[in-house]
Design goal:
The complex is a heterodimer of chains A (about 775) and B (about 260).
Chain A (H helix, E strand, L loop, with lengths): L14 H5 L15 E7 L5 E7 L1 H4 L4 E6 H6 L31 E2 L5 E7 L2 H10 L1 E6 L6 H4 L15 E8 L1 H9 L3 E9 L11 E7 L4 E6 L4 H10 L9 E4 L15 H13 L3 E4 L2 H7 L6 E9 L5 E13 L27 E9 L13 H19 L3 H8 L6 E2 L5 E2 L4 H11 L5 H10 L3 E10 L7 H6 L8 E7 L5 E5 L8 H13 L6 E4 L17 H27 L7 E4 L2 E4 L5 E3 H10 L12 E6 L8 E10 L6 E11 L6 H21 L31 E4 L17 H18 L10 H8 L4
Parallel strand pairs in A: 1-12, 10-11, 14-15, 20-21, 27-28
Antiparallel strand pairs in A: 1-5, 2-4, 2-6, 3-5, 7-15, 8-13, 9-10, 9-12, 13-14, 16-17, 18-26, 19-20, 19-25, 22-23, 23-24, 26-27
Helix pairs in contact in A: 10-11, 10-19, 15-16, 16-17, 18-19
Chain B lengths: L4 E4 L3 H10 L3 E4 L5 H6 L7 E4 L9 E4 L2 E5 L4 H5 L2 H6 L1 H8 L4 H6 L2 H7 L6 H7 L3 E4 L3 E3 H4 E3 L2 E2 L7 E7 L3 E8 L6 E9 L5 E6 L7 E2 L1 H9 L24 H18 L1
Classes of the chains: A alpha+beta (about 775), B alpha+beta (about 260).
Chain lengths: ~775, ~260
């Protein structure tokens, strides 16, 4: 490991820009003639649109145009789509209702866009938006997924009777039922996974620019995957053919999944730019973000876990209802199915699993992937069930987990996944040691003397990252392949540009990707630039989500570096009249092993471009590209332990300590990994203690539409984290990377809730465990 | 935000004159509630009369045990006043936990009490301290000032210029903060005077805004200790219920915060 190579704790190159206010986000973009858009949004959760009258609005000062859904339809702009086909267990395809970028017949949630106003200023656009008269006929509303499935409830889409999108299953129902019937003990529990708002620091924004001279469109947007945005907008939404559409995702201030999807605003601003003849910029305000950014989670599950007389799990049965909101967002169908139920084996050897999942339309914002996407739901379900079972069986939570750990790899679960490597005992041991688990009883007694209820809880999570082998996901219904691309350009003076299809929106790619190059060629990371987020620069890519940038994106870079290295060695060998197999690259020099002969890296690069003295037949230049398609998912895993004190008078939970012991495979930059874990823990603790989207069930109004009512975690809600890793390299990719972006958010909620329920002696507790809920549970019978 | 005219008043008289001349005018004294409300287009005053720079409305004066706080004094200045802390640390402590540092440097005591947000901290202190609200035209006892949710006895155009109170022998304030907004979900300010007078004022919990709890006052009159409140019942029927806390939980918080306020006094 060099000082800037793989494994080095290098400070992030991009932070200078971010911390000094020099970042360039979509809202910072300005082009000549640019105008501002405001969307007219439905104030009702469910209504028919009788008419839209924009006459008054069009006459307002500064207004360039007001456009609605009928015009959008007339121009042939297509429906928004869900890109992952799921079939119900009866073989029928999922029931996808039409999602128009601008609703012209029916609105289905508060915030559904019905018109766009383009004006000289935001204020004038807002004034005019208020003057657009939409005549609505209110319809009855349903916000709860379980209720929406009942007879006689409001129907959202004619395509989906009883609001049921699909009724899907995985695993072996007969074998699972048999195991439950034969069990020595069955633990039953109902698990609710609360709906969350993603809350990236930067709200969504887009700038649509139509150039009539070339019939060409440019879309600046807050996207985690600009190439996917271009693909979908050209192939499905009929905005423009790919060669006439450039998508740029510049600096993006956090995504957490919510910026994977293509939203109506990008499409409508591009179309409106052509219609009005001016560039059109829209920036979401925070209330719009709460209303329209895709939400996460919102599952209700019934669980049965069967044990034999030796406390070994012999079967797991799960019945889940997942709320997908008013429309099917881009990956919404994959989250509660292949990203969720395939992880239900956890770290445990479970011979029989059956999961049934019903997804449901409701009059709420669309729900899609949010940090972890399905895996937090699986982990919370499993780890609360394990904790409950341990209490029922009278064994320690660690012992019950140890009895059931998978210890031989590869391990084929009954739910598709093939785990390739792991050491679950190592994480559990490390976490228990760091938390001084054995000293807990004394700490509990001491707390009791102060009138406080102390509790401890653990969670052993596994997740699937490195998303994903293209053929495998294709066979499961994915509309895209999930490989990644890279191009490495060595300039004539030896500096290097790496073009990647991964997209950094807080992850630190400009540093970690450069560390790969520094490690390989011994050049300083300052001589390496990472280029991403522009479809005109990077040919194609699948973007960043599912902790895939390291395992998949970097693997593509490695493949390209291999090719560059091979050619560089040929050039150097030729220059030094040596055999290319004798060339080694160290500290920025290409050396002939065992001699004092060397060529500096920059001189080799210059030779590639002067082309005065290249090996016979070699093309000039030094630029190589590669695509990498992963062979398997990767399987980060770990053990989290949380210790809390509950104030029985108020129900306030104080986190005394939080220990995270992870297995992320090989690590490029430990500091960035720790930052990812800290952030993930904060989000997981936020879900468990504070965050929750509330809709009024009677009228579908969003009650948590600002930070006055939606509780985000703050510094004083969080302890100082104790983090460590004990890593087993991933065997399926060249760097041995598993991924770390989501682990914190996946593993932490159950550890925290298990700790609180341990403290109060009542297992009936739902997230977020607000003081009121904890107080009520602490004073109620279990 | 709709278009509005901004005026910076140089004196109390100037402020009142500007406000009278305005169409739909509002005094601005920090704007920590008004400005966000205007940004959401939920309020649309034609004119804002900023009173925050009026020298006669700024500063804290302690004479013996008589306290006078100018209405335009920021929460930060109240929180960091050593003079005030020497006679009534409960109110400096209260001010130090309002909002965040930005809010404490912009928001003012006059702005807070004139707005009378049912979850604001100061109204409970004013009521428990039996403070006098001084305006451009009269003096109003705190007990008559707070009349309902966001409602006060202020007449149209009347400007709060100062508050005064006698520092009590003992005072304590405990707040249970809303996890999202950090406003008081329940806050209780308790006061005991040398003559045996007790006041317990509750903010954040009442469905009609800040109120005194006579049952707790009676219990503490006989025995100034947290334990004295053990037998007191807090009626939940007049308390707020929302997505953060129902009335029953707030009733519990009223009692727990009162106990802790007495302990801290």
């Amino acid at each position: 490991m060099g000082v800037e190579g793989i494994g080095a704790r290098v400070a992030r190159k991009e932070d200078k820009r971010f911390l000094t206010g020099k970042g360039r986000y979509t809202d910072d973009m300005s082009v000549p003639g640019m105008k501002y858009a405001i969307f007219v949004r439905s104030p009702y959760a469910h209504a028919k649109i009788r008419s839209i009258d924009a006459t008054a609005a069009k006459a307002m000062p500064g207004v360039i145009g007001v456009l609605d859904g009928k015009q959008l339809l007339a121009d042939g702009i297509g429906n928004l789509i869900c890109g992952w086909m799921i079939h119900s267990k009866d073989g029928s395809p999922m029931k996808m209702g039409a999602w128009r970028p601008l609703a012209h017949e029916t609105v289905r949630y508060v915030g559904d866009a019905v018109a766009i106003v383009v004006a000289d200023s935001v204020a004038e656009a807002k004034d005019a938006a208020e003057a657009v008269v939409v005549d609505y006929e209110e319809l009855p509303v349903v916000t709860d997924a379980t209720k929406a499935l009942e007879q006689g409830q409001p129907q959202l889409h004619p395509e989906a009777p009883n609001n049921l999108i699909f009724d899907w299953q995985i695993g072996d129902p007969a074998a699972t039922d048999k195991a439950i019937a034969a069990a020595a003990h069955v633990t039953e529990i109902t698990i609710h996974n609360n709906r969350l708002s993603p809350n990236p620091m930067e709200p969504r924004a887009t700038l649509g620019i139509y150039d009539g001279g070339d019939d060409h469109y440019t879309c600046y947007t807050t996207s985690q995957n600009p190439h996917v945005a271009r693909l979908v907008m050209s192939a499905f939404y009929n905005v423009a053919p790919e060669n006439k559409l450039r998508v740029i995702a510049p600096d993006v201030g956090g995504g957490f999944g919510s910026k994977i999807y293509i939203y109506p605003e990008e499409i409508v601003c591009l179309w409106a730019s052509k219609r009005t003849g001016v560039p059109v910029k829209w920036t979401s305000d925070r209330t719009e973000a709460f209303l329209t950014d895709a939400h996460g989670r919102d599952h209700l599950s019934k669980v049965k876990m069967a044990f034999d007389a030796n406390n070994r799990i012999i079967g797991l049965k799960v019945d889940t209802v997942a709320n997908l909101g008013a429309y099917m967002s881009l990956f919404s169908s994959a989250v509660p199915t292949y990203l969720y139920a395939t992880l239900l084996s956890g770290q445990y050897d479970i011979p029989a699993i059956h999961a049934n999942v019903r997804t449901v339309y409701t009059n709420t914002a669309p729900v899609d992937a949010y940090r972890g996407a399905g895996r937090p739901e699986a982990t919370y379900l499993l780890e609360r069930t394990m904790e409950t079972a341990a209490r029922e069986l009278g064994v320690s939570p660690a012992e019950l987990r140890r009895v059931n750990f998978i210890r031989s790899f590869p391990h084929q679960t009954p739910v598709i996944m093939n785990y390739d490597a792991g050491d679950y005992d190592a994480s559990l041991d490390a976490a228990m040691k760091a938390a001084d688990w054995n000293g807990f009883a004394a700490r509990k007694a001491e707390a009791a003397r102060r009138g406080m209820k102390r509790g401890i809880g653990m969670s052993c999570y596994i997740e699937a990252c490195g998303i994903a082998p293209s053929a495998a996901v294709g066979s499961l219904g994915a509309g895209v392949g999930l490989w990644e691309s890279a191009e490495v350009r060595v300039n004539a003076v030896g500096t290097i540009e790496v073009l990647t299809g991964s997209h950094s929106h807080g992850q630190g790619h400009e540093t970690t990707f450069a560390q790969l190059v520094a490690d390989r060629f011994g050049v300083p990371i300052d001589s390496v630039n990472i280029v991403h987020g522009d479809t005109d620069k990077v040919q194609m890519g699948m973007g960043t989500y599912g902790s895939r940038s390291g395992a998949v994106g970097m693997s593509a870079v490695v493949k390209a570096l291999d090719k560059v290295e091979a050619k560089a060695k040929k050039i150097a060998a030729h220059l030094m009249e040596a055999d290319e197999s004798d060339i080694v690259i160290e500290n920025g020099e290409l050396k002939v092993a065992g001699t004092d002969k060397s060529v500096p890296w920059f001189q080799m690069a210059l030779s590639a471009y002067t082309a005065h003295n290249l090996p016979p037949g070699m093309e000039p230049g030094l630029k190589e590209g590669a695509f990498y398609d992963p062979a398997n998912f990767t399987f980060p895993a770990g053990c989290y332990i949380c210790e809390v004190e509950v104030d029985p008078e108020t129900g306030v939970t104080k986190i005394i300590q939080f220990v995270a012991a992870d297995d992320f495979g090989n690590i490029i930059n430990p500091m960035i990994v720790e930052g990812q874990v800290h952030g993930g823990l904060a989000q997981g603790i936020g879900q468990a203690l504070l965050e929750g989207v509330h809709y009024d069930p009677g009228n579908g109004q969003l009650l948590t539409a600002s930070y006055m009512d939606y509780a985000m975690p703050r510094a004083d809600d969080l302890p100082s984290f104790t983090v460590s890793t004990s890593n087993t390299p991933c065997p399926s990719n060249p760097l041995g990377i598993k991924g770390c972006g989501e682990a914190g958010a996946i593993g932490s909620p159950p550890a925290l809730i298990n700790a609180i329920t341990d403290a109060i002696g009542n297992n009936r507790l739902t997230m977020p465990a607000t003081p009121q809920k904890v107080w009520a549970a602490a004073h109620a019978a279990n | 935000m709709y278009e509005t005219n901004y005026h910076r008043a140089s004196s109390i008289e100037d402020a009142v004159k500007l406000r009278q001349a305005a169409g739909e005018g509002k005094y601005l004294s920090g704007g920590m509630t008004l400005i966000p409300t205007m940004k959401q287009r939920l309020a649309a005053p034609t004119d804002l009369v900023d009173v925050r720079q009026i020298q006669d409305m700024k500063g804290i004066r302690v004479t013996g045990r008589t306290v006078r706080i100018g209405a335009a004094t920021s929460h930060f200045d109240v929180a960091s006043s050593a003079e005030l802390a020497a006679v009534c640390p409960a109110i400096t402590g209260l001010a130090s936990h309002i909002g965040d540092p930005h809010v404490r440097h912009m928001g003012t005591i006059g702005g807070s009490i004139a707005n009378n947000d049912p979850a604001a901290d100061y109204p409970s202190a004013m009521l428990a301290l039996d403070a006098t609200i001084v305006t451009d035209r009269r003096e109003i006892a705190a007990g008559d000032f707070f009349t309902g949710l966001f409602e006060t006895a202020l007449e149209d155009g009347e400007l709060v210029t100062a508050i005064t109170f006698e520092a009590p022998a003992k005072a304590g304030y405990q707040k249970f903060a809303n996890p999202a907004s950090r406003y008081a979900m329940t806050g209780v300010f308790v006061v005991r005077r040398d003559n045996g007078d007790i006041r317990v004022a509750v903010t954040g919990a009442g469905s009609s805004g800040v109120f005194r709890h006579k049952g707790m006052e009676a219990a503490l009159a006989g025995n100034w200790s947290p334990d004295a409140l053990a037998g007191v019942t807090v009626d939940a029927s007049d308390l707020l219920s929302d997505i953060h806390a129902d009335a029953g939980y707030r009733a519990n918080l009223v009692k727990v915060m009162a106990k802790r306020a007495v302990a801290a006094a």
